[in-house]
Amino acid sequence: MQSVEVDAESIIRVITPALDQSRHKGQAGKIAVIGGCREYTGAPYFAAISALKIGADLSHVFCTKDAAPVIKSYSPELIVHPVLEESYSVREEDKKIIACKVLAEVDKWLERFDCLVIGPGLGRDPFLLDCVSEITRHARKSNIPIVIDGDGLFLVTNHLELVSGYALAVLTPNVNEYKRLVQKVLSSEVNNDDATQQVLSLAKQVGGVTILRKGKSDLISDGDTVKSVSIYGIPRRCGGQGDILSGRQNSLYFYH
Ligand SMILES: NC(=O)C1=CN([C@@H]2O[C@H](COP(=O)(O)OP(=O)(O)OC[C@H]3O[C@@H](n4cnc5c(N)ncnc54)[C@H](O)[C@@H]3O)[C@@H](O)[C@H]2O)[C@@H](O)CC1
Ligand SMILES: Nc1ncnc2c1ncn2[C@@H]1O[C@H](COP(=O)(O)OP(=O)(O)OP(=O)(O)O)[C@@H](O)[C@H]1O
User: Was 174 annotated as part of a binding site?
Assistant: First the structure.
């Protein structure tokens, strides 16, 4: 199968709503990023701020208590919730009750969001990831579109049931994340000679979620079709570019 190059710029122009004097705050999108821990405060910031820059009205971040003051200090535009906990700050005997509290805090807000990004800078702490699994289940129950990136992909690759068959999920793997997904889902290695067919099979196998494989050309498949976007960016490959993409993807998903 041939990949189909799409004119992403024209599509973005068509789906982005025009500014309109009759609109009120929130109508151009209320999004949330679930991510940010002791090590990573930049990734959730990049994802959340890029959603605002592309036009969303409100952008929230749900992160650990340590990460919150740092992310707040980057930008007064973000609404930052210090609700997530990592194992080091929770006693074994308190884990159940703390997990319930975390979920209750996120649930208070969840229904208001048009879209979530799960994973930028989340880290891989097992207790934190257990809580985020529950958040993902609740988002799915409420039919909220989710973009899964960064450590969120580490989580769902090990727990495919979280997204399997959920057509409102978009996975945005980089080269390593894609390799892990292919190994787990297709029990094979990445095949760059037939990349379009492989991304199609992968999306189909995960039950029609959308896979956006990042690379020199981004390949996007929902299990039925494959599109590619080869617009030239900058030749540097520094950290943070994928986080920006996941945040922008979040706003665009809502517009679409
Ligand atoms: N400024 C920031 O805050 C940035 C944070 N980032 C975040 O960094 C996180 C990792 O993303 P990468 O693309 O670097 O991920 P990779 O999968 O490439 O791995 C990153 C590191 O994690 C280690 N690792 C692999 N398996 C592990 C495991 N089971 N347990 C613990 N560590 C393991 C690897 O050895 C590697 O050093 C993501 O949450 C991502 O969003 C990046 O987006 C870059 C920028
Ligand atoms: N070889 C490449 N040539 C051109 N563009 C690329 C290349 N690899 C990735 N990109 C682009 O860079 C952006 C980020 O992709 P990348 O693979 O760096 O994500 P990531 O590792 O998840 O980023 P992050 O550091 O934010 O976690 C994507 O928009 C992708 O299209």
Answer: yes
Q: What's the 230 CA to ligand 2 centre distance in angstroms? A: 12
Tokens matching residue 133: 């699994």
Q: Is 73 annotated as a binding residue?
A: no
Return the number of other C-beta atoms located less than 10 Å from residue 223's C-beta: 19
Average pLDDT across the chain, whole number: 95
The complex's ipTM? 0.85
Domain membership of residue 6 (yes or no) is no
- The half-sphere exposure of 8 on its side-chain side, counting CA atoms within 13 A, is 15
Which residues form the domain of 86?
29-233+240-255
Closest-lying ligand to the alpha carbon of 70?
1
Q: Is position 8 within any domain?
A: no
Length of the chain: 256
Give the global pTM: 0.94
Considering only CA atoms, which residue is closest to atom 5 of ligand 2? 216
Atom 25 in ligand 2: which residue has the minimum CA distance? 239
15 is in an annotated binding site: no
Q: Whole-angstrom Cα distance, residue 83 to residue 99? A: 10
Total number of domains in the chain: 1
What whole-number distance in Å separates Cα of residue 208 and Cα of residue 198?
14
24 SS3 class: coil
User: Which of helix, strand or coil describes residue 4?
Assistant: strand
